[in-house]
Amino acid sequence: MEPEDILDDNSLSDLTTRFDGNAIMAPALPRKAVPKDRFPALFATLKTQTYHDPSTRGPGSHTIRTIAWNPTGHLIATGSSDRSIRIWNPEKPQVKNSTELRGHTGAIQRVAWNPTKEAELASVSTDGTCRFWDVRTRTCIASIPLGDEGVTVGWASDGSLALVVRRDDLLIPICLHPDSPPTAGKSLPQSVQTNQTIFNPVGSPTTLLLTTGEGSVKICSWPPSSTTAAAAANGGTPLHHSAQTPSRSTTPVPPGSSASLQTLHTLHAHTSACISLALSPTSRYLAIGGSDALISLYDTHDWICRRTLSSLSGSVKTVSFSWDGSYIIGGSDEGTGIDIAHAETGEIVARIETSMPAPCVSWHPNGKYWIAYSGDPAGLKIVGAAGGGL
Asked: By three-state DSSP, how is residue 187 classified?
């Protein structure tokens, strides 16, 4: 049985402060946002750049499974079914200007950049390892055995922790230390299918969101601790204590004790599995992609679903917000085309025509309305990288 939520309605405002950019620290926007009425015409001027990987030898030989921009948007990483990771400079599409990272012996499942370091990358693979890379030197600085295939990896916003999800729904926190190699913490088995996780967007990790195969998103306190259940039973909640900056330690559970995540709140978002998650850069909205081909947008002020986007044809593998949080896209491995929706209204304001499904989509993170996507046999494509008036 899943634990009951420990928050009443009055306490949800406290939970909101973990995600609401206005309540915590609204990030400074690098440029003025383009309004909805002007966006379609300006976006239409953007030209698409193709990044052809020489490993491609035919259909399916180099399927891109994951893409990720680094924090500044100066680099973009792809991970592929042929076990390779490639780092591209989006302004230099020639392969001679890219960097290949080799070391995994299985298909790459997910790549993710350290949000505090522009050249540190984490990757998980079907080979059962999580690797950490310094892309400047093209070296693997650490390889952590997982015991089974890794499905996804995500970072805490302060770069102190990477969290891996295995295919058997076991969570493995990996602590990163300034003066020593990364170390795996105590694993956390989950009773339901877990597809993606994200931490609170600012500061040390205090809250973790998990998608489940039951159509819900669990909002849990972090770090896990054997004392959380006792605290809740005594009428206290870790939520209030977390108003103070917590310790950077992410593995407080003593050896041999039972560790678990404490569910603070549950969003019953979809009628089938929740697959993907994204928090808008302003932290106003949480986007949840489901296997029902829908994207639900939750307002983090009150955790109510404000609107649902229904233009996709299949399971929503990825969701992504533009750098200003104004626009949202979803990626699917069914159907063709990428619809761009206005987050505040749900209106489709533009569309990228594709010849194949585009399961991986990602907006540029820092002031550009560029969109990177996978699925084209020619390789990675980035709308905007070849020029335009936006």
From this structure: coil
| Contacts (Cβ under 8 Å, ≥6 apart) of 320 | 278, 328, 329, 330, 331, 361, 362, 363, 371
Identify the pLDDT of residue 62. Answer: 60
Rounded to 5 degrees, φ, ψ at 255 are -55, 135
Question: Average of pLDDT values for 353-377?
Answer: 96
Residue recorded with tokens 């850069």 = 281
338 vs 345: CA distance, rounded Å: 18
Around Cβ 12, how many Cβ atoms within 10 Å?
19
Spatial distance between the Cα atoms of 336 and 32, rounded to a whole number of angstroms: 31
- The confidence band for 256, taking pLDDT boundaries of 50, 70 and 90, is very low
**CA distance between the termini of the chain:** 51
Look at residues 155, 152, 141 and name the one whose alpha carbon lies nearest to residue 70. Answer: 155
Write down how long the chain is: 390
Res 244 pLDDT > 70:
no
- pLDDT tens profile 28-51: 556 789 999 999 999 999 999 999
CB 185 within 8 A of CB 175: yes
Residue 234: φ, ψ to 5°: -90, 5
User: For residue 349, which amino acid is it?
Assistant: V
Query: What is the DSSP secondary structure assignment for residue 240, as one 8-state letter?
Result: H
Whole-model pTM? 0.87
Report yes or no: 153 and 193 within 8 Å, Cβ to Cβ.
no
Q: Retrieve residue 307's tokens.
A: 């609107």
- Determine the number of helices (DSSP H) and then strands (DSSP E) in the chain: 4, 29
